[in-house]
Write a structure and sequence with these properties.
mainly alpha, 6 helices, 74% helix
Length: 138
Amino acid sequence: MDNFTPFTAIIGGLLIGLSIVSLLYFNGRVAGISGVLGGLLSSSPDNEFWRVYFVIGIMIGSFFCLILNSNITISFDVNIPLLIIGGFLTGFGTQLGSGCTSGHGVFGVAFLSYRSIVATIIFLIFGVITVFIQRNLF
């Protein structure tokens, strides 16, 4: 929490909202990361270039964020097998929940989708439980 400022959080939230509204308005698509990546990795002919641009945009935005804020340090204090298991569980959860936190939590809640509101509450509950277990039992 050393790098948190309300100003950067507001700007980040506005940019996320602008990108979601833009994608919906110009492409008629929902900006859920699991759906974007799932469509990119599937073999269906629905693989459109907007998915590639979306993923590249996320990487470029992250790169610029690191360049503009040299105080950010990224480290993973977890072993690789646990990281891989977590990745598979996350992928399974996005399929089970028909979307991820970005699709449900940002887009679905903004559109007052009951299913997305319930999914986001469940994401938050299990996030709190996971952090509690990680910090207190391991």
